[in-house]
Structure formats: structure tokens, C-alpha cells
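Q: Fold this one first, please.
A: Sequence and structure below.
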Amino acid sequence: MCPVICELRPYQELAYQAIIDSVVNGSGLTFTVEYARQGGKNEVSARVQSTLLALHMWNSFNIVKCSPTFHPQAMISIGRLKATLDGVGYAGVWKSEYGYMVRMGKARAVFLSADRTSRVVGHTAHLLLEIDEAQDVSKEKYSRDFKPMGATTNATTVLYGTAWDSTTLLEETKQTNLELERKD
């Protein structure tokens, strides 16, 4: 992670812009962002989150991000968002809540575990639903507990991860997206 905010690489910028456009325009698209390990997925995520919190700080809207584990994966994402907010000038503006939320004004980023035993039902993703390391998240857990969080709000969904095998949530969603792209 950069001690100061670094420029996004061109491939990161493309993902960032597409995600922001979908949220701002209310498109409710589903993206798969697949980079090699240490390719900058979490940097893109933190930039998207910080932008959306800043744009919507006067609205009671949520971003929901889940990771396969809370410790350490979700905690790393929380730290990265805080550092990004500080780096772009929002130090002292954001607040930590309950150990798993970052609030800026009325807007919140909520970080949850996608472990099979986690109890997460009840949260709403108004703006964005992010699935980190989606190749390690159970398809059943995603479908039952997380996907409904953004259904009524038409939230944009982003699945981040690394290539694994053809049976993962990430790969199946990527193949669906590629088929939709071919039809377009």
C-alpha cells in the first residue's frame, strides 16, 4: 500500500471508472475484477469506496463489502479504506463504528465475513455490494445472504479475485459477464 495516494494503473483506472459510472447512473451492473495476486484489487476497492462515501456523505446509504474471513481479510480492507480516506484529505471526517463500519457523514461502508457460519442478514447495500476474494466465497452463502442485500436497491455488485478454477463464484460470474458482453 502506498504511504500516500498513488495513481491507479491504467487497468485499475478502467475498473474504477466503470464501477463508479454504474453506481452514479444507477445501472446496477455486476462486475468481475480479476487480477493476479498483488495486482491492486484492494486499491481499486478502497478508491471506489472512498469516492462513493464522499459523493454520498449527506445520504444514509451503505456500501457492503464481504471477505472470506473477518480476521484478517475484512480488517485489512477496513485499514486500506481508512488510509485512503486520510490520503485524499478526509482525515478527521470519517469515523469508525462497531469495529466493522467506516462512516463518513451519513454514508457507511460495512465490512462483513462471508464465512459459512457468519450471520450477516439484515444489512442493505444501497450503492455497492463488493465480494472480496470471490473465488473463496461459497456460491450458496453469496446467493442466500449477500446478493439479496443489493436486490431491492439495484446496487452495483463487484466480485474481486484471482483465477482459481471453473467452479468458483468468481469464475461462474465472469463467464456470465463474458456471455452478456458477447451479446452486446
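Q: Good. Now the second chain.
A: Here it is, same layout.
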Amino acid sequence: MKNISLIGSTGSIGENALAVIKAHPEHFRVVGLAAKSNIRKLRRQIEEFHPKMVCVYEESAARILERRLGKAKVKIVTGESGLKEVARISEVDTVLCGAVGAGGLSAIFAAIESGKDVGIANKEPLVMAGDLIMQKAKKRRVRILPIDSEHSAIWQCLHGQNGRAHIEVKRLILTASGGPFLGKKKDELTNITPAEAIKHPRWRMGKKISVDSATLMNKGLEIKEAHHLFNVPIEKIDILIHPEAVIHSMVEFVDGSHMAQLAVNDMKLPIQYALSYPHRFEMNLPKLDFVKIRSLTFDLPDRRTFPCLNLAYEVWKQGGTAPAVLNAANEIAVDRFLNGQLTFLGIPRLIERVLSSHKNKSNPDLEAILEADRWAREKALTL
């Protein structure tokens, strides 16, 4: 039995994780939940899973939840300190972080310092502070479990490498569906609306990650994730456009062999693998029908049309506080685009302007990373 704390329980990752836990009550138990402000959904989760503690990040929402729960036996905490408290619950074995953006960073560090394994579903923590996260995890002898589908795919391909992956891997290949604007050129993206950008051709996601998919920034962020998770240099991580989205990622080994992970598109699969690792449990998902698929196609990403990918590669090579700045500037740029304050093509331009104003700091500690994040957000709001 694994005891789980779930950060971001009311989002899509959180709901999928709870579906996995519900399907295997003999293996998993919910001990802690954390959400930003969706108390209606959180209340239903409390009533179904009976956690020991919940965090509602916004204090006003927490007070409303307290009144609605009445005499329900659950401790309610709030804010940043509340997130950390949920991550540190003594009987918890694994903390799963599915919070949007950089929101779960403090909980991840709290979990690692408390000796918990951590499943990371959101890209931003490893982008901002991947070196620190992996160093602390190694020191505390805890595992960082990939949940992003592409990184879960690579993890599964590397299973059994016995610590030799960094020697035997020639390159990692992250696949990308191409998003809603696959095949379009820059002059066709001039008047893109938020509604068009979040309309993914294959699956429904949150607005922020949908826009990142449309700009290909999500692939830029995933490169940095893969670098930290698998100890592979940036220059040995490539992107391939794969519109069918059947192959979730691949590994090329030094002998020329390739290994790929194929599955239906359902986030419950990588979530369950992270929670059940090193075992596999049964899962009631549709099977791949290779006869219906018929063909798998691949292409190189169009970096001229989607410059966010180039920006990411350049920043990852710089290191220091630049990754935190890129991540923060992108979050603000996407938010401004969704609110009608910025054009679609203005997203990479704003990120580039913020980066050009930043004085990079090498080997930053967490305080410096958070300060760079704060500065970049303010800067991106003023340009």
C-alpha cells in the first residue's frame, strides 16, 4: 500500500491520478490533497477519498470549504506553508505534483527533504530548478518519477539499463503532435485567436499547456526536463513531429538500436506507471489497433515558424537563472495572449525581449531562482 499526497488534485492530472488510485484501492491510498481554489471539486474528492489533510491555496476559499464541510474530519491548511505541510505528511510515501506552472516547486522541495518519492507531471519545476531538485533527490536517496507522457515513455524504454543509460544512449527523441497549426507558415499565424490556439487536434488540455503546444514551447520545456531526469546532454535530445501521437518518445542506443514506447493517448497510463513502478498493474484502456493506424509519419519541427523551440535550446545551453526567466516570461506571455493583450506571434517576441534584459547568474541557489522568476514576471508585464 502506497500513501499518496496529490498537489493539484482538481486539475486534469489530479483527476486522472485519483481515477488510477480509485481503480487500485488495494495498492494506493490518498492521504493529502492540495488545490488552488476549486472547492466544489475538492469537496467531492474529500468525501470520496477521505484524506487526512487538504490544502486550499487561497485562504478565502479555504474558509468557505471549512463551513461547507461542517464536522468532516480533515485538517485544512492554506498558502505556501500549507502546500509544504501536505507534502511532508509523515505516512506519505509518494507526492505527486500536477500543479500548473511553477506553483508546486515549494511542495516538491519539501517532499524531497522529507524523504518522499516525487512524481512530477508539470514541466516548470525541472525547467526552473532541475539541477537543485536532482541534487537534493540524490542526497536524500529519493526517486523523481516522470509523469509527462514523453518522459514516462523514455523511462520505460530505459528500464533495466542498470545505471548505464548515460553511457549507452546515443540520443533521446521526444515526439510532438505538432499542435493545431502543424504545416502552417508564419504569415498564416498573424491573426490567431486564443480559441484557435487551445483547440488541440488530438486531446483536450488546460489552456496554458494547449498554447505551449501550439507554439512548440512545450517541447522546449520537455528537452530541459529530459536532460535532468535522464542525465543526457541537451545536444543529445532531439524533437520529431509525429502527428499520429502513437509513439510517445524513443531512445536511440549507441549500437544503432531504437526503442520506442507506444500506447493510446491517456494520461492515466504514465501516472499509474509512476505510482506502481517497478511493477505494472492492469488498466482498462482501449488497445492500440495497428490495422486502423496503418502508418506512422515523422517530420522535423519548423523552427522558423515556431521560434520558441530555438529560444529554449539557446537558454538551456546558457543555464544559470536564464531557464527560470524563460519559463516565467512564457507563462506571462501566454496569459497575456489568452487575455487578448498580446498576439500569438508576440509570445516568442516578448520572451526574447525579457531574456535580452536579464543578467544571467551562474549556479543559482533556490532563492536566486525564485528572484529571477519574480523579476521576469514583472518585466514581462511591463514590456
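Q: Anything worth noting on the second one?
A: The chain has 17 helices and eleven strands.
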